[in-house]
Amino acid sequence: MSKKHPIISVTGSSGAGTSTVKTTFDAIFRREGVKAASIEGDAFHRYDRAQMKTELQKRMAEGDYTFSHFSYDANELGELERVFREYGETGNGLKRHYVHDDEEAEKFGVPPGHFTAWTAFQEESDLLFYEGLHGAVVNDQVNLAALADLKIGVVPVINLEWIQKIHRDKASRGYTTEAVTDTILRRMHAYVHCICPQFSETDINFQRVPVVDTSNPFIARWIPTADESLLVIRFKNPRGIDFQYLTSMIHDSWMTRANSLVVPGGKMDLAMQLIFTPMIQRLVDESRKQ
Ligand SMILES: Nc1ncnc2c1ncn2[C@@H]1O[C@H](COP(=O)(O)OP(=O)(O)OP(=O)(O)O)[C@@H](O)[C@H]1O
Ligand SMILES: O=C(CO)[C@H](O)[C@H](O)COP(=O)(O)O
């Protein structure tokens, strides 16, 4: 935690929608005149695509079938912790990109499956924004949750998460349904042990729930739309959250528990704007006073 250089960490599994949520944050940052330095979780993978394939084969030959991109040791979480810590102390840090597809290859000048070089943050910023797989990990080696000032979980119910992952990986990353299904299966152990525990560390979780049948996510022809889903928003600590204001501003929303709100899927962006704008203002006001 750093009052001077705050960190916002948006955490979710692959395909959960963390990149999509970033567009809402970018809109708030723009409107509120907040300068954010952004980093992506995939930049902290330990291996490039070819190295990962080799490492996977090696582990499987040794009888380890649990290793995947979700595993702690497939990622440089110590490096991520160092970036969080350095940013909190100095407002600086290092970033790079993991290039997934041809479009990103064109943008970054590096072939798919490779990393760009590490570079220091170019400009001064008011806060650091992380989105990725491991932004609230607490294990015996790192404590990322302790270093982030606002932690957000993006967690569609699992059928929906799989549909999103399958559709995105097929449409933009050139994978087949079978290849994505294999990846989902291979990652399940680490999903349970490395991804899920973070959602007890996060301050607010956003869980999209479809209200159409997703019983067989592997044949879904499209991702359930905003109108075909609800959003459960759960606050770890509801103290200070003005639920009356939120339910009056978000049409058709209601409370299901003392710390949980449900809003129509189409109100996700509005709900995030209403919830996060005052939180971001508070973080930035505090930091400017230091
Ligand atoms: N609220 C939503 N409504 C409908 N579709 C969504 C929503 N959020 C995400 N998606 C879709 O799900 C897919 C995955 O989303 P996104 O790329 O944001 O995931 P991600 O968590 O960043 O994944 P990764 O970490 O693997 O890059 C995309 O096709 C995106 O359009
Ligand atoms: O999105 C992901 C994790 O968040 C990808 O699955 C991971 O970055 C590996 O990518 P690829 O299989 O394209 O090399």
TrEMBL record:
<dbReference type="InterPro" id="IPR006082">
    <property type="entry name" value="PRK"/>
</dbReference>
<dbReference type="GO" id="GO:0005975">
    <property type="term" value="P:carbohydrate metabolic process"/>
</dbReference>
<dbReference type="InterPro" id="IPR027417">
    <property type="entry name" value="P-loop_NTPase"/>
</dbReference>
<dbReference type="Pfam" id="PF00485">
    <property type="entry name" value="PRK"/>
</dbReference>
<dbReference type="GO" id="GO:0008974">
    <property type="term" value="F:phosphoribulokinase activity"/>
</dbReference>
<keyword id="KW-0547">Nucleotide-binding</keyword>
<protein>
    <recommendedName>
        <fullName>Phosphoribulokinase</fullName>
        <ecNumber>2.7.1.19</ecNumber>
    </recommendedName>
</protein>
<dbReference type="GO" id="GO:0005524">
    <property type="term" value="F:ATP binding"/>
</dbReference>
<keyword id="KW-0067">ATP-binding</keyword>
<keyword id="KW-0418">Kinase</keyword>
<comment type="similarity">
    <text>Belongs to the phosphoribulokinase family.</text>
</comment>
<dbReference type="InterPro" id="IPR006083">
    <property type="entry name" value="PRK/URK"/>
</dbReference>
<keyword id="KW-0808">Transferase</keyword>
